[in-house]
Design goal:
- This protein has 495 residues and is mostly helical.
- The protein has one domain (50-462).
- It is built from 23 helices and no strands.
- It has helices at 4-13, 19-22, 24-29, 51-69, 71-80, 84-87, 93-100, 130-141, 149-178, 186-190, 193-198, 204-219, 223-236, 241-254, 257-281, 283-286, 288-295, 303-311, 318-339, 346-360, 369-379, 383-408, 418-444.
- Helix 14 (241-254) crosses helix 20 and helix 22 runs antiparallel to helix 23.
- The longest helix has 30 residues, at 149-178.
- Belongs to the glycosyltransferase 87 family.
- Residues 1-21 have a biased composition (Basic and acidic residues).
- One of its GO terms (cellular component) is plasma membrane.
Length: 495
Amino acid sequence: MTSVRDREEDGRQELPVRPTDEDPLAATASELIGGPAGKHAEAGGHHWWNALRVMVLVVIGMFALGMVQKVPCYNGAWFQGGDPQYIHACYSDIPHLYHDRGFAADVVPYFDSIPGTLSGSGFHHLEYPVLTGLFMEVASWLTPHGGSMDHRAQVFWIVNSGMLLICAVALVVLVSRTNRRRPWDGLFIALSPALALSATINWDLFAVALASAGLLLWSRSRPLAAGVLIGLATAAKLYPVLLLLALGMLCLRAGRMRAFGAAVAGAVGAWLVVNLPVILLARSGWSEFYHYSRTRGVDYGSVWLIIMQRTGNPLSGVSAYVAALLILLCAGIAALTFYAPRRPRLGQIAFLVVAALIVSNKVYSPQYVLWLLPLAVLARPRWRDLLIWQGAEVLYYIAIWMQLAYVTGGTKHHGLSADGYHLAIALHLAGVLYLCGMVVRDILLPQHDVLRQDGADDPAGGVLDGAGDAFVLGLLPEEEGTAAPYPPQEAGYEA
């Protein structure tokens, strides 16, 4: 029979981890609001102001600040042409595509061609995946058709912002619940400057929320449902398919291939349910996104742009270079997965594979930082490292608009020259690679992994949590083939 003391000790072990308990930067910053929580603070969130409600209010506030930052564009810069929207760093695709992709004219995405008078970009159909196209279409249904075109575009942006705010709140909730003992990890997402600045540029936040829901379901040992959500996320943006690659590597090492098969089946089934009707009824419109992704050239934000502009080489075969580099990086991640002294956590490998795409891709739009945001928190929940990375991303956010202001401003040359922009790209890549380096260090030296310092294996790993090693290529720490948990470190802060 369990004693009262035993139950109390078990309860203490299940208390949620607060950032100020273990993170020196968070503890220092908390002095601004009275210091870390004391021993009499409410544990477990039984009062109204629990972690989740606080973070929801914080992300709503940060999202609102991001919308305020777009006010100069809302008040006219979007519609003036030229560089005002770049000078104010408030550009968004949303109001422009309301007209340019035919939503204002009630063009049905994929099924109707975009009239040539509307789109000067040469697209015949909407160049977005099907589920994102549906998101955009729903927003257009909610946009009243009265008033001038500029006014309707403003309302379209507001409607989309409201829908994306729901995605932002969902993202914080999903990440905070993925690791049961660390609900406060979602606070970094809620306070993220990159989220505030980039949330309403495009529709990426929708796919990010769906992918995060898939990871939450996986953490609850529901692989089929997790696969369904990952498949839906892939129907909204292509990058979430890489989460299946991360799951495949880890399930192979842990001997959990049945769970992986269920996830793949769920993903393929969900993707087909969304895409197959459009493929059968509007194949030309459906294929626009995939054709554009395959054939587009070197674009802003990529390492390939630096190479092209510095060398004068047009890099006409850049898609092959991108594929080769991505395959090479993923092969390295696979080797790390199978050679590591202890099976890496899902958050770590998921972050690394998506970061590999970010680093190797032929374009980096500023909203792509949202792809990495929840994965970075799951991989390395250390405020110092996350803020270093976010600082580099904010600098890049400013730099790309200043570069566009420079090239669209005619002879005025307001903004940032190519040399300065290349430096900003390099700093962005350095920020991503720095965080990758810290994650790799945690994998190779598991005793430095903050999520494993209490003896845990993979709290967000679902069926992987506590699993042994079925397939490895390196030397195992124990003869039995399973990595024993590392004991908790003594009180103190880890670098």
